[in-house]
């Protein structure tokens, strides 16, 4: 889209005021850019398809037709369509709540739902890698430790209860972590090389923090982290990397989503019994039912390899 057309559409449809509204809503820069860009594409299509319509002439049919255009003409992925629809719905909400229009025409517009049985919420490998890069780029040593522990597949309750004495680093045997899981069940896990390296930098800093807590991870208030505090760390990074789910909705990455990525990657190459032991699952069947998504493509591939 050329600069002149962008400026005309921005002025005509009050997109600068909408952008300020998103800033006031504390949306991330990436989310704002995504919403504005999708609204511009929508209005470009609208003008070309329906003539010089103003914002107060929009109808629910226009939004549905654009959704159809993206799917059938542009061959857009459902996730891209959902991001576009959510962008438009957000703009319509802005129009409605600020008195530009009298009726919220997008209120009942639905996004596309992914088919299949309910499974543990996951994030894509691309989103996972973006999260990892951003955490390491920011360089907060405690956040790096937190992320590397999440990669071991620990539950947030298990991370919250980790103590300094639960960590063992030996120059010969390597590193180990003792974890108290569900039902007070203990398990002992070897540490990854990345986590050992991060711990060697973090533990000397941790030892100098003035606190009565022996928790491995300490908040800015020099106290043990609450579950909410651990969730908020990932939420802040979710906003920084502009994380979306498969339905195009902005998401807050949770500790359990990282646990799911670990489970999925481990199950791709390892025996389920081993994976259950790593994750602290008492039932292998429960592990498979919850974390494995058996698609038609996987079934066909398995049959073709017979």
Please explain how this structure is put together:
By secondary structure, this protein is mainly alpha-helical. Helix 6 (125-138) packs across helix 10. The relative contact order is 0.11. The longest helix is centred in the first third of the chain and has 22 residues, at 29-50. Strand 1 (167-170) and strand 2 (174-180) form a beta hairpin. It has a three-stranded antiparallel sheet, with no helix packed on it. The chain has helices at residues 3-12, 15-24, 29-50, 60-73, 78-97, 125-138, 141-150, 156-160, 193-207, 227-241, 255-269, 272-279, 284-291, 296-304; strands at residues 167-170, 174-180, 186-190. The protein has two domains: 3-97, DNA polymerase, domain 1; 125-299, hpI Integrase, Chain A, CATH 1.10.443.10.
Write the layout of secondary structure elements.
Blueprint: H1 3-12, H2 15-24, H3 29-50, H4 60-73, H5 78-97, H6 125-138, H7 141-150, H8 156-160, E1 167-170, E2 174-180, E3 186-190, H9 193-207, H10 227-241, H11 255-269, H12 272-279, H13 284-291, H14 296-304
Helix pairs in contact: 2-3, 3-5, 4-5, 6-10, 7-9
Q: Averaging pLDDT over every residue, what do you get?
A: 86
Describe the biggest sheet?
Answer: 3 strands, antiparallel
User: Roughly how many Å is the radius of gyration?
Assistant: 24 Å
Report the oligomer.
single chain
Choose one word for the global shape: elongated
Number of helices: 14
Q: Report helical residue fraction.
A: 55-70%
- CATH architecture name of the largest domain: Orthogonal Bundle
Tell me the series of helices and strands, N- to C-terminal: HHHHHHHHEEEHHHHHH
DSSP strand content: 5-15%
Number of separate domains: 2
Largest sheet strand order: 1-2-3
Q: What CATH first level of the largest domain would be assigned? A: Mainly Alpha
Rounded to the nearest angstrom, the distance between the terminal CA atoms is 51 Å
